[in-house]
Amino acid sequence: MAEDFKIPSLKVDEIDKKIISILHEDARISYTDLAKKVELSRVAVQMRINHLVENGVIERFTAVINPAKVGIQVSAFFNVEVEPKYLESVANQLENEPAVTSLYHMTGPSKLHMHGIFTDNQEMERFLNEKLYAVKGVVSVDCQILIKRYKSRMGMKL
């Protein structure tokens, strides 16, 4: 029965992996330049990328912003314990908060792991008091502030 819920995987060959790797480094590269790097025609590369997008392998192309360059000084990770019956409603409220950059349901029946970014500690404190602690069903919050980033996922490498 568990196999009914299995997400079908798409066969990704070595050329697709190379294309994804190059796009991961520079998503703005032209089809022509990418084609030269993987030794295919521009049309073949475009078709492969379209196929990867249509099948959900590539979810989106995006710009990665350096938070410090736009005044974001505080990056924090939160473990939020929630009463089980409120888990979905709490997650739905938090996912719509602009300060929340990622939100995951973690092991355990009522744990949410969240990342948030703030201009300063005062903004984070307002978020905690006015947004997070005020949500019905939140039992406790553990917060850790980022000191230094060594690596960030920015997409999966194959």
From TrEMBL:
Matches recorded under InterPro entries: ArsR-like_HTH, AsnC-type_HTH_dom, Dimeric_a/b-barrel, Tscrpt_reg_AsnC-like, Tscrpt_reg_AsnC/Lrp_C, WH-like_DNA-bd_sf, WH_DNA-bd_sf
Domain HTH asnC-type as annotated: residue spans: 12-73
Pfam families cross-referenced by the UniProt entry: AsnC_trans_reg, HTH_AsnC-type
GO CC, alphabetical: cytosol
GO BP terms, alphabetized: response to amino acid
CDD domains on file: HTH_ARSR
Keyword annotations of the record: DNA-binding, Transcription, Transcription regulation
Superkingdom of this protein's organism: Bacteria
Molecular function terms, GO-annotated: sequence-specific DNA binding
Name of the featured protein: Lrp/AsnC family transcriptional regulator
Natural source organism: Peribacillus butanolivorans
Lineage: Bacteria, Bacillati, Bacillota, Bacilli, Bacillales
